[in-house]
């Protein structure tokens, strides 16, 4: 008595050849999936590198803004100290001089 799919000739070769076709197709699809996974892996590594670089830049900018804020705070403190004293005329003259300088610079730039 013969079992189906076993032995020579008959339907066994058909089943085995069908199985090998499916196996080859699966291997082909597996290779395609492996290539896509590798592409995603390299992309995620690149994104991670870019995020680290952007975070470093943000930290540097934060440090710069903090130092600038401290400098501006100290300058405004000095201006307030000047305005509290009897040197208000000096402060007005200084502001008028600054406006004059900016106006002259604007005028020169405008003529070019």
UniProtKB/TrEMBL annotation:
Q: How does it sit in the membrane?
A: Single-pass type IV membrane protein; Single-pass membrane protein
Residue ranges of domain T-SNARE coiled-coil homology in the record: 20-82
Q: So where does this one cross the membrane?
A: 90-109
Subunit record text: Interacts with SNARE complex members GOSR2, SEC22B and STX5. Interacts with LMAN1/ERGIC53. Interacts with STX17.
Q: What is this protein called?
A: BET1 homolog
Functional note: Required for vesicular transport from the ER to the Golgi complex. Functions as a SNARE involved in the docking process of ER-derived vesicles with the cis-Golgi membrane.
Keyword Protein transport in the entry? The reply is yes
InterPro entries the UniProt entry points to: BET1_SNARE, T_SNARE_dom
Tell me its family.
Answer: Belongs to the BET1 family.
Output a single Gene Ontology CC term carried by this record.
Answer: endoplasmic reticulum membrane
Q: Which domain of life is it from?
A: Eukaryota
Gene Ontology BP terms: protein transport; vesicle-mediated transport
Subcellular location(s) of the protein: Endomembrane system; Endoplasmic reticulum membrane; Golgi apparatus, cis-Golgi network membrane
- State if Oxidoreductase is listed as a keyword: no
UniProt KW keywords: Coiled coil, Endoplasmic reticulum, ER-Golgi transport, Golgi apparatus, Membrane, Phosphoprotein, Protein transport, Transmembrane, Transmembrane helix, Transport
């Amino acid at each position: 008595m013969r079992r189906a799919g076993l032995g020579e000739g008959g339907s066994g070769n058909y089943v085995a050849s069908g199985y090998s076709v499916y196996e080859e197709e699966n291997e082909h699809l597996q290779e395609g999936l492996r290539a896509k996974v590798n592409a995603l892996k390299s992309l995620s590594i690149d994104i991670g590198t870019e995020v680290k670089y952007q975070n470093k830049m943000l930290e540097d900018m934060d440090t710069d803004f903090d130092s600038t804020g401290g400098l501006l705070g100290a300058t405004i403190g000095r201006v307030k100290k000047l305005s509290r004293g009897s040197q208000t005329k000096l402060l007005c003259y200084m502001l008028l001089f600054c406006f004059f300088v900016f106006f002259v610079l604007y005028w020169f730039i405008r003529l070019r």
